[in-house]
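Make up an example, fold above all:
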Amino acid sequence: MTNTTVGLEELLMQRSLTDAQLQKAASAAANFRILPDATVIKIGGQSVIDRGRAAVYPLVDEIVAARKAHKLLIGTGAGTRARHLYSIAAGLGLPAGVLAQFGASVADQNAAMLGQLLAKHGICTVSGAGLSAVPLFLAEVHAVIFSGMPPYALWMRPPVEGVIPPYRTDAGCFLLAEQFGCKAMIFVKDEDGLYTANPKTSKKPTFIPKISVDEMKAKGLHDSIIEFPVLDLLQAATHVRQVQVINGLVPGNLTRALAGEHVGTIITAN
């Protein structure tokens, strides 16, 4: 047992868990990466799955081909149906924790649908306690599907304004990538990446191939392509220090990104 470990154990027995010296000792302890060879892919609900067969089938084919060379944790977004539920629940005055449960139910549905499409290839959908079986699935078939919504439910942190859950499927997928110590995090959207303005509504937006979190916030772009809390999570992360946002509607983009190519926009922690 190292001096650092001994010191940390003593501090844990004697101090508050918010003690500055204890926090420093905990930070100095070695971090173990559970799945260092795996990549987390977040497939957008509204941007991809809600588009149906034309968008989903080509992506399914890419996933089946890519898993031969890569270990994939595939998270699903919620999308349009969740937004509809949010609007009704918010109008009823329900809190963020209840809305989080509704959003999770839609992400679960999308995971189930994707799971059925990939079932014949041996790729399963897991949730809750099933996440403990992820290493086995990765070893056997190199891929597994999960619902991207973090399971906070009624314990969801209330937002500063409104009742929309601040930690949704982008955040959930990133947290899984960080906690498992995965090698990469790829967000599959319906845009080529980050722009200076919304490309769906702006006439002349400028594409941004690479940017840091601080630069995004300084330019007012912190809620443009991925959920705002992901940026803070990225800066606080130990293992996943950058994320990549790609257009999943362009055939081959996912394959290229998994191969290490710079596709779309890369957002860095610093």
